[in-house]
Each structure stands twice: as C-alpha cells, then as structure tokens.
C-alpha cells in the first residue's frame, strides 16, 4: 500500500476501513464496519475482534494517505 502514515483524530462518523487504532495499548486495523443505530458503528478488526464505537467516542488512529493525491491548494 502506498502513502505515508499520519495521525488523525477519529469518531464514529470519520472512522475508515484501514485505520489503525490503539485500544487498551493494543493496535488494531479496521477491516470492516457497520452502522449500529443512534450514531454508533460496530468495527470489525483484521484479528476478528469487534468494537462498538459510540457516537461520542474519540480515538487517535494512524491512516495511510498518498500525499500526491488529493485536493490542490487554491
């Protein structure tokens, strides 16, 4: 996978597949997710474990981005 890792603050509306999050001192990579109602999301990690992210939960994640692709400065 191309790109560089950047730290981003995520919540239930901004979490994305591929994000690497730290929960309880252990790293997990988001493999899939599904809406769980009331603004919550159920995250499925590559390890097979799940985590329900509440609407107000805020985490830090490492996200791979390609600096050559994206919006241009105006």
Summarize this, please?
The chain has 74 residues and is mostly beta strands. The chain has strands at residues 4-10, 20-23, 26-37, 40-45, 50-53, 59-65.
Rg from Cα: 13 Å
Spatial strand arrangement across the major sheet? 1-6-2-3-4-5
How far is it from the N-terminal to the C-terminal residue, by CA? Answer: 28 Å
Please identify the oligomeric state. Answer: single chain
Q: Please, what is the average pLDDT?
A: 91
Structural class based on helices, strands and sheet pairing: mainly beta
User: Helix and strand succession?
Assistant: EEEEEE
How many DSSP E strands?
Answer: 6
Query: Helix fraction?
Result: under 10%
Beta strand %: over 45%
Largest sheet entry:
6 strands, antiparallel
Number of helices: 0
Shape: globular
Stretches where pLDDT is under 50 for at least 5 consecutive residues are none
Tell me what you see in this structure.
β4 and β5 (50-53) form a beta hairpin. This protein has strands spanning 4-10, 20-23, 26-37, 40-45, 50-53, 59-65. It has 74 residues and is an all-beta fold. The mean pLDDT is 91. A six-stranded antiparallel beta sheet has the order 1-6-2-3-4-5, with no helix packed on it.
Blueprint (SSEs and pairs):
Elements: E1 4-10, E2 20-23, E3 26-37, E4 40-45, E5 50-53, E6 59-65
Antiparallel strand pairs: 1-6, 2-3, 2-6, 3-4, 4-5
Key phrases:
54% strand, six-stranded antiparallel β-sheet, 74 residues, mainly beta, single chain, globular
């Amino acid at each position: 996978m191309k790109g560089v890792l950047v730290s981003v603050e995520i919540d239930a509306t901004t979490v994305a597949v591929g994000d690497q999050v730290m929960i309880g001192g252990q790293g997990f990579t988001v493999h899939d997710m599904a809406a769980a109602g009331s603004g919550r999301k159920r995250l499925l990690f590559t390890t097979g474990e799940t985590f329900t992210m509440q609407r107000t939960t805020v985490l830090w994640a490492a996200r791979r981005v390609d600096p050559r692709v994206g919006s241009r400065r105006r």
